[in-house]
TrEMBL record:
Residues 1-101 form the HTH APSES-type domain. It comes from Rhizopus microsporus. This is DNA-binding domain of Mlu1-box binding protein MBP1. GO terms for molecular function: DNA binding; DNA-binding transcription factor activity, RNA polymerase II-specific. Keywords: DNA-binding. Gene3D superfamilies: Transcription regulator HTH, APSES-type DNA-binding domain. The keyword DNA-binding applies.
Length: 101
């Protein structure tokens, strides 16, 4: 559980694991996935997430800034994160089974 003022619950309860030196997070209550961790585990920069969001204007994303570095970045609903990973994270497909099945 990570405390934050950026969430109405006051904290984000997560399932987490390390992948390629980056923390992969999945909110255990609302299902949002920390896409920044997955994107960085692929070797991409955080800045290029902006391009992905611009190319997919219908994405419902939540940005977390401030507080614990681990939870900062772009969070999105499970289905959106899964769809983006199917297109962009083939190299991590076996590593992400614990999140997406």
């Amino acid at each position: 559980k990570y405390a934050t003022s950026q969430d109405s619950r006051g904290a984000i309860p997560v399932f987490q694991f390390k992948l390629n030196g980056h923390t992969i997070l999945w909110d255990s209550e609302n299902g949002f996935v920390h896409f920044t961790g997955i994107w960085k585990a692929l070797g991409n920069s955080k800045a290029s997430i902006v391009k992905i969001i611009a190319e997919n204007p219908d994405l419902q994303v939540k940005k977390v800034r401030g507080g614990c570095l681990t939870i900062q970045g772009t969070w999105m609903p499970y289905e959106s994160a899964r769809a983006l990973c199917v297109k962009n994270a083939w190299a991590l497909r076996f590593d992400l089974v614990s999140v997406f099945g």
